[in-house]
Prior knowledge:
By secondary structure, the protein is of the alpha+beta class.
Amino acid sequence: MEKGSVTVNGVSLTVCDSKESSFRVAIIPYTFEHTNFCRIGVGSVVNLEFDIVGKYIARLMRNYMK
């Protein structure tokens, strides 16, 4: 998958890698420290919004959204 972006809790982040059932985003230290990302962890519920490329990620994540 080509790079795209995903918005997590209102913050737009660059998708730097994606696999069949997961994706990774790039986040700079300033953004991490000045948003709620420093207070959330694995398994936390977050709001996700996708761009056109992100639709592919949404398709991959359907099984996890049930």
